DNA sequence: AAGTGATTTAATCATTTGTTTAATATTCCC
DNA sequence: GGGAATATTAAACAAATGATTAAATCACTT
């Protein structure tokens, strides 16, 4: 495999540190050290810490949305399959990137202006398709609840992981099994909710 | 009403700013300005920024847990009533403190050591009571799922509020109605899930 | 091999930031 | 009312931090 370019090394280090600690707590010198590069290269390639952060956030947000939007908005995919696919996609994605949802949701909450910029011209959700499919099946649950319920059931365990594990509700070493078991259950649960 | 003491003014300002922006992004000078006090008083009363932060986190965590733990762990409260009370408590609490859950969950994620200190000797969840009550009613849902589902359904909309509103899924001005409507639905949903 | 542009480095700058100090003001108690 | 404890202030300090500079090195073309 190719060795990473300087630019890639910086992005990887920044991605890791920003995700773990957030924007303000991550220092440019830490990123440089983690990447194994000279501090000045960070500004040489990305201009500023903020600009680098924007790049990381964009990529992370894309990862988070891509597991959901294309599936939700595809009218050819039936509702049942949408639920199953989203549960599967997120369980896999978030097991590999546990800090992803809390990072994005927290930065979005703390730094709304940044996301106005990033999400401009980006259709985040396509409600009409879902609305139609719910109607077809005679389901009265409203569209927003439908989506929020799925996301809540699948994402919340990751968002609240420290609370869940440190309370003993789920042991740290059993967490992966816990969410994998939920993956299958969520499809049933959502169907029961909508019945 | 009594005028606030200096100590109280600092706590209120710190509480507001830490909740909104997190530890690292909040500067001591901002806190002092927001509180309308001299910068040195912060250290005079609280010793350090970190110590002040710990106080704020403790109080916020207490708020978040108190809406749940006493109810969950009370064997005299039947399961149905537990669900309804927790949904009601959190909807009210979080409408009044929208940043509360994302603040606590993010800081917990970012700064685990701090919470080891704070939650030491604090029984966060009491599973045996719930486990017994689920068994009595012949519900096969496991205890962790039961609790995570309730919390996810009730807390997730607040955690993901920026995403939900800026995507147009729920309009900002309709958000309060949205979660109030969910409050009643959640009881039904949880019962359906467990049926 | 020389020249050219891109990349990397060490050093430095200007601010910001958490904290402390020493002096002044205020409150409390006898 | 005076003196001791408490509270408040302005100023300063040292370290940290994001960014920049100018020189050095590297890669590539001719």
Give a quick precis of the structure.
Helices cover 74% and strands 0% of the residues of chain A. With 195 residues, the first copy, chain A, is mainly alpha-helical.
Question: How would you sum up this structure, described in words?
Answer:
The structure is a homodimer of 195-residue chains. Chain A has 195 residues and is mainly alpha-helical. Chain A folds into 2 domains: 47 residues, Arc Repressor Mutant, subunit A (Orthogonal Bundle), CATH 1.10.10; 139 residues. Helices cover 74% and strands 0% of the residues of chain A. Chain A is built from 12 helices and no strands. In chain A, helix 1 crosses helix 2 and helix 7 packs across helix 8. The longest helix of chain A is centred in the last third of the chain and has 20 residues. The model of chain A has no long low-confidence stretch (mean pLDDT 94). At the A-B interface, helix 7, helix 8, helix 10, helix 11 and helix 12 of A face helix 1, helix 7, helix 8, helix 10 and helix 11 of B. Chain B binds a DNA duplex (30 and 30 nucleotides) through helix 3.
